[in-house]
Design brief:
Blueprint: E1 2-7, H1 13-23, E2 27-30, E3 40-46, E4 61-64, H2 70-73, E5 84-85, H3 90-108, H4 111-120, E6 135-139, H5 143-154, E7 158-163, E8 175-177, H6 182-186, E9 191-194, H7 208-211, E10 218-222, H8 231-239, E11 243-248, E12 268-270, H9 280-295
Parallel strand pairs: 1-2, 1-3, 3-4, 4-5, 6-7, 6-9, 7-8, 9-10, 10-11, 11-12
Helix pairs in contact: 1-9, 3-5
C-alpha cells in the first residue's frame, strides 16, 4: 500500500514530514519518481498532470489538497470510478474568513479612499459607518461560506446568503436559492462575497446582466473561482461606476496574464489566489482522517458529487 504525493508550485518538505507523522505505516511516493504504479492506492494531489491518474489501477481515492477539485475533474481522462475527496480544513476556512473580513472592512470603512488621500497629503477623515448599516451577501453557503457569514454576523453586519439549491432552514441569516431568487438577493447587497464552486451552473453566473442587479456603488469580493465572474463585464461595470470596487483573488486564467487590464484598473485589488492557503500540518491531518475512514470502509468527507459539480 502506498500514497502518491503530487503538489505543483508547493514546497514539499512540510507535506512529506506531516504525511510521515500521520501515515507513517504507508509508503510515500513523490511524483514523478514512481517505481511501481500498482502499489498506489491513494493520490494526494494539487494540479497533478492531466492524463496520469488513469495509470494507477488500484487507486482507491483522489484527495485534493484544496477545497476546489476543478484541477482534478478538468482532466478528461481521470478515472471517474475513483472517489474524489475535497479538503475540509478548519485552518483553511479560518484563513478565508480573515481574508473576507479584511476586505469587507476595507470597503465598508472607506479605507480604499485613504490611499488617494495620502498621495495628495490631504487630511480628510471619513465619517464613521456602523456595521449594522452594511448589507453583505455571501454566494455559496457551504462550510466556508457559512463560516464567513457567521463571522460577519458576529461583527453586527447584516448578512444574507444565496446558493444554487435549497438548503435546510438557516436560523442565522436570510437564505435565497436558485436563479429565480438571484435578483431579490442581489438587489439588497452593498458588498458581495463569492465563495461558490465552479460548476456548469455557476460558470459565468456573475455576468453584466446579473451584476447590474446589485445596487449602484456595490463592491465585490471574489474568493470562489475566477470563471464565475465575467471579467470583461466586471470591468465595464467598474468603468461606469455601477460597481465601485472589486477584490479578486481568483481568475479565469491563472496566473493572471501580464497584459490583462485587471492589473492596472484603479478600482481593482488583486491577490494571487492566496485566500485560504494550506497549512500542511492541519491539511494532512484532515486528509489522513479520510484515508483512515476509507481503510475502515467508511465514507470520507466531504466527498465530491458528480451530479452537483462540487
Amino acid at each position: 500500500m502506498a500514497i502518491l504525493l503530487s503538489l505543483k508550485d508547493t514546497e514539499l518538505e512540510p507535506w512529506i514530514e506531516s504525511i510521515y507523522k500521520e501515515l507513517g505505516s504507508m509508503e510515500l511516493c513523490i511524483y514523478p519518481d514512481i517505481q511501481d504504479r500498482e502499489v498506489i492506492e491513494y493520490a494526494i494531489v494539487w494540479k497533478h498532470p492531466h492524463g496520469d491518474l488513469k495509470n494507477y489501477p488500484n487507486l482507491k481515492a483522489i484527495l485534493s489538497c484544496g477545497a476546489g477539485v476543478d484541477h482534478i475533474v478538468n482532466d478528461p481522462e481521470y478515472p471517474k470510478s475513483v472517489p474524489i475527496v475535497r479538503l475540509h480544513d478548519e485552518k483553511l476556512s479560518q484563513d478565508m474568513c480573515l481574508y473576507a473580513l479584511h476586505w469587507v472592512l476595507h470597503f465598508h470603512n472607506d479605507y480604499y479612499q485613504y490611499t488617494d488621500i495620502q498621495h495628495t497629503r490631504h487630511w480628510n477623515p471619513q465619517p464613521l459607518k456602523l456595521p449594522e448599516k452594511c448589507r453583505i451577501g455571501v454566494m455559496g453557503l457551504g462550510t466556508i461560506g457559512k463560516k464567513i457569514a457567521d463571522t460577519l454576523i458576529g461583527f453586527d453586519f447584516i448578512v444574507s446568503g444565496w446558493g444554487a439549491t435549497k438548503k435546510p432552514e438557516m436560523e442565522s441569516l436570510p437564505y435565497f436559492y436558485g436563479t429565480e431568487q438571484v435578483s431579490a438577493f442581489l438587489s439588497t447587497i452593498d458588498i458581495l462575497i463569492n465563495v461558490l464552486p465552479l460548476t456548469t451552473k455557476t460558470n459565468n453566473l456573475l455576468d453584466k446582466r446579473t451584476l447590474k442587479r446589485l445596487p449602484r456603488g456595490a463592491f465585490i469580493i471574489n474568493i470562489g473561482r475566477g470563471g464565475i465572474v465575467n471579467e470583461a463585464d466586471l470591468i465595464s461595470l467598474l468603468d461606469d461606476g455601477h460597481i465601485r470596487g472589486a477584490t479578486l483573488d481568483v481568475f479565469a486564467t491563472e496566473p493572471l496574464p501580464n497584459n490583462d487590464p485587471l492589473w492596472s484598473h484603479p478600482r481593482v485589488y488583486i491577490t494571487p489566489h492566496i485566500a485560504g492557503q494550506n497549512n500542511p500540518q492541519s491539511a494532512v491531518s484532515a486528509i489522513a482522517k479520510n484515508i483512515i475512514r476509507l481503510e475502515n470502509s467508511e465514507e470520507p468527507f466531504p466527498l465530491y458529487s458528480h451530479s452537483k459539480g462540487y
